[in-house]
Every structure is written in C-alpha cells, then in structure tokens.
Amino acid sequence: MKHTLYPYDSKGTAELIVNQPYAKPDATTSYNVSEPVLEADHHKYRVSGVDPKTNKPFSVMRRLRHFYALRECLVYKYPALYIPPLPRKKAVNNLADETIQLRVFLLNRFIK
C-alpha cells in the first residue's frame, strides 16, 4: 500500500510505502538529530542512529519538510497513537540560532 503525500517540491509528490515489515526497536535503539547546516535559504539536520534490522549505524541529512512528511505518514498509518508535534515553520527570524537550537531539541523529542 502506498500513501501519496502532498506535493512538496517541483518534482511532484512523494510516495512512502507504509506497510513494510520492520524490526521492533529495543531498549538500545537510539536516534539523534544534530548538526544543523544552512544551505541556501533552509537548514538540513543530521539524523543518525543504528538500523534495528541490520544493526549498522546510519547518518543522513534531512530538511524540516521531510520530518513533516514522516509525521503525516505516521498519523495516517497509526491514527490511534499520539504522534508528537513538530516545530512550526517560521517565516520571520527562522535562521536565528535560538530558533535552530529549539528546532533541534523538538526534532529530537519527535524522533525518539
């Protein structure tokens, strides 16, 4: 089953397969959001952790809109579960250090 998300770039819509089997995370599974990097007019955040299926570490860069797309898929797939909110996108003062630090904190809360 594919769930088509809202279009968020010039390439059309993003699709995410939401019925893939997954390994249940154990107590040692940990994910972290860090290292915001400014690119043009937006930030990217490093997401790192250990893949519970392969037990191998990973590290990827993601934009705030990727977290929004993930949250939308989780809410769609698990409507009865509480999915933590994400920090709001700000049109003004969105590149300030305090704003970025708060986003990193809230994204860490979301991802855990």
What does this structure look like?
The chain has 112 residues and is of the alpha+beta class. It has one domain: PX Domain (2-Layer Sandwich), CATH 3.30.1520.10. Helix content is 26%, strand content 28%. The chain has two helices and five strands; from the N terminus they run E-E-E-E-E-H-H. The strands form two sheets. The protein has a three-stranded antiparallel beta sheet with strand order 3-4-5. The longest helix is centred in the last third of the chain and has 15 residues. The N terminus is likely disordered.
Strand content: 25-35%
Tally of individual helices = 2
Q: In the CATH hierarchy, what is the class?
A: Alpha Beta
Structural class: alpha+beta
Helix and strand run: EEEEEHH
Q: Tell me the count of domains.
A: 1
What is the count of β-strands?
Answer: 5
CATH topology: PX Domain
Helix content: 25-40%
Radius of gyration: 15 Å
Keywords:
disordered N terminus, PX Domain, alpha+beta, two-stranded antiparallel ribbon, 5 strands, globular
Please give a quick description of this structure.
The protein is α+β, with helices and mostly antiparallel strands and about 110 residues long. Helices cover about 25% and strands about 30% of the residues. The chain has a single domain (about 1-10, about 30-110), classed as PX Domain.
